[in-house]
Amino acid sequence: MNIRAGKNGVILEIKAVPGAQKNSICGEHGGALKVKVAAPADKGKANRELEDFLADVFGISKSSVEVVSGKASRQKQVLLRGMTQKAAAEIVENILKQKQEDL
Q1: Which of 28, 34, 73, 88 has its CA 20 to 30 A from that of 20?
Q2: Mean of the per-residue pLDDT values for the chain?
Q3: Could you please report the per-residue DSSP string of 12-70?
């Protein structure tokens, strides 16, 4: 999983899938966290929903999450402001472990 230190937090690689039935984290895909969002890829709606969803998942404010690269692509880089690399990695690891247990 590609989680690296950024200027004000961490950068997380995301593979976004817009237009899903519900928001969910599906697992890992090519080193990125695969995230489904319910909003369509229309005028930034999916990006905003992705930011809001990740804020909830990581327990940070919505203003602390920003798509910094790939706004018009499914491959994105998302900044999680104020989050440490270790904390973000632990949250991702727990989510992926839970996904495995649910299978």
Answers
A1: 88
A2: 94
A3: EEEEEE-S-SS-EEEEEETTEEEEE-SS-SSTTHHHHHHHHHHHHHHT--GGGEEEEE-
In this structure, are residues 25 and 37 in contact, taking their beta carbons and an 8 Å threshold?
no
Question: What CA–CA distance (Å, rounded) separates 13 from 32?
Answer: 5
- The whole-angstrom separation of Cα 67 and Cα 4 is 15
Tally Cβ neighbours within 10 Å of residue 33: 25
pTM over 0.85: yes
**Domain edges within the chain:** 3-102
Give the residue carrying structure tokens 């690399």: 85
| CATH class given for the domain over 3-102 | alpha beta
* Per-residue pLDDT tens over the stretch 21-43: 999 999 999 999 999 999 999 99
